[in-house]
Amino acid sequence: MQTLTADSSLPDSLHQVETFKADKLMEFYKSDLKLKKFLRVIEDSPVYPVIYDRNRTVLSLPPIINGAPSAISLKTKNVFIECTSTDLTKPNIVLNTMVAMFSVYCEQKFEVEPVDVTYPDGKSYICPELSPYDMKVSLSHINCIVGVSLEAYKVAHR
Questions:
Q1: What is the pLDDT of residues 117-143, one digit of tens each?
Q2: Residue 64, C-beta contacts closer than 8 angstroms, at least 6 positions apart
Q3: pTM for the whole structure
Q4: Distance CA 108, CA 156 (A)
Q5: How confident is the prediction for the chain on average, in pLDDT?
Q6: Is residue 8 pLDDT above 50, yes or no?
Q7: Comparing C-alpha atoms, which of 63, 61, 79 is closest to residue 71?
Q8: Is residue 101 within 8 Å of residue 93, measured between CB atoms?
Q9: Rounded CA gap, 102 and 12, in Å?
């Protein structure tokens, strides 16, 4: 069951005090202009992805909704960042970007705790994967993206 609590500082989609079973939650959000487009990702699935806290309070039903208990405030001390997608490439890029951006605000700058993601088939991996990687890109592409016209030696030598 998904329980969402009212809080005037939260977006309209979180202003709920009703308790829903997953199928009723899907029905409820079909009328939400912002969220209904995400329903297709999981609505026909026999199981739904759910993120609970240690007390089994539903924090998120990705990619549909986050519950009020997971809202970030100025008093927030720990942040769990999750990305939902139907393939691993895009969410890994987004996750790495978000983790790097948030980590600037950590008490210990750039401190990140990895998470072991385990699938029902037993396969698992650690994320975020923040190790450096090589990427081949043309000079013309770099100049186009950055909006400059630099020679190769200037790009390579900063």
A1: 888 899 998 999 888 878 888 999 989
A2: 25, 26, 29, 35, 38, 39, 42
A3: 0.57
A4: 31
A5: 78
A6: no
A7: 79
A8: no
A9: 25
